[in-house]
Amino acid sequence: MIRGASFPASGSAVPGLIPGRSFGVVLGLSFLMAFNFPGLAVGDPQGGKASVMPGGAISVGKASVTPGGAMSVGGVSVMPAGVPPALGPLVTAPGLSPSSPPMSPNLTGLSPGGEAIPRGLVTPAQEALLSSRIAGQIQKIHFREGDHFKSGEPLVRFHCPVEKAALNKARAALRAADKKLAINRELIGVRSASRLEVEMAEADRLQAEAEVAMQSATVDMCTILAPFDGWVAALRVHPYESVAQGTPLVEIIGEGVLEVEVIIPSERIHDVRVGTPLSLKVQETGKSYPARVVRMEGRIDPVSQTVRLTGRFTEVHPDLLPGMSGVAELDRPLPP
């Protein structure tokens, strides 16, 4: 081990940890992890010692930083942001061993029995982000945020004079093809037209008919219709704006019974199946709402060792809104 220079520092509230200076030593030595030094120690006259051990771990008295960025101070260790939960608990305090279940943003903590407590998120049964199917200028938005609409009602309308003119042109060409075909059929009866001319007239009519269908579909794209009953959640555009094809226009959510998404530890997967009762105590309202599991994710997340399940509330609750969350409680599974 190679001895280095010592740094003066003031007293510390945690034995072996010098505020400011000692953390400066840790941060200042962090670049050494990239060079694979066999070991480096920096003496501290106040009793602390900073060292870089093989593999890149940094230690200052009772404070240490691992190569992954985890910090330990006086028996309390904190994993850095972005580290997958499977690599270690987000926060480990005295009383929680390294073998304790990893904490997840979807878990509120540990119950008195040592089990992870899952959280639930209220979601709509139907939702959609409607986008523009053509490039053009928005002529009118029929609903504002929070407004209710019925299925089939227009939500957004585009200004489409060119598309409508192309449709009229195609319809005129179809009428001309109909007349040409009718005349050729009359002429073949008096042997003034050949069978080939009749067949060519029939092909021209089919081509004109297809052109009308194509232009009609383009004009239909000028109006965004509601696919189901619901509410406008958010508007992404404004009237008179010009947008490209595929631009998000409006977010909508369906009316009816809401759902709840819950992430549970994989150890409990055998206790849950479709039909299992659950309840969600919503933080925003302070009430509990009963629900039942309607579907489960088909695989376990290998990083967090959790599985996602979806429940549906047993009835409509006017005070529930998508985005609310709370603590989820799973009841015992139903008998087979």
Features:
Elongation Factor Tu (Ef-tu), domain 3; 3 helices; disordered N terminus; six-stranded antiparallel barrel; alpha+beta; 4 domains; elongated; OB fold (Dihydrolipoamide Acetyltransferase, E2P)
List the helices and strands and how they pair.
Blueprint: E1 2-3, H1 21-29, E2 40-43, E3 49-52, E4 58-60, E5 63-65, E6 71-73, E7 76-78, E8 91-92, E9 107-110, E10 116-123, E11 127-131, E12 136-141, E13 148-149, E14 154-159, H2 161-189, H3 195-220, E15 223-225, E16 230-235, E17 242-243, E18 248-254, E19 259-265, E20 277-282, E21 288-296, E22 306-313, E23 325-330
Parallel strand pairs: 1-2
Antiparallel strand pairs: 2-3, 3-4, 4-5, 5-6, 6-7, 7-8, 9-10, 10-19, 10-23, 11-18, 12-14, 12-17, 13-16, 14-15, 16-18, 19-22, 20-21, 20-23, 21-22
Protein described:
This protein is an alpha+beta fold and 336 residues long. It folds into four domains: 2-78, no CATH class; 119-125 and 256-330, Elongation Factor Tu (Ef-tu), domain 3; 126-159 and 222-255, OB fold (Dihydrolipoamide Acetyltransferase, E2P) (Beta Barrel), CATH 2.40.50; 161-210. It has helices at residues 21-29, 161-189, 195-220; strands at residues 2-3, 40-43, 49-52, 58-60, 63-65, 71-73, 76-78, 91-92, 107-110, 116-123, 127-131, 136-141, 148-149, 154-159, 223-225, 230-235, 242-243, 248-254, 259-265, 277-282, 288-296, 306-313, 325-330. The strands form four sheets. Strands 1-2-3-4-5-6-7-8 form an eight-stranded mixed beta sheet, covered by helices on one side. It has a six-stranded antiparallel beta barrel with strand order 10-19-22-21-20-23. Helix 2 packs antiparallel against helix 3 (195-220). The longest helix has 29 residues, at 161-189. It is elongated. The protein starts with a strand and ends in a 6-residue tail after the last strand. The model is unreliable at 1-50, 52-56 and 73-108 (pLDDT under 50).
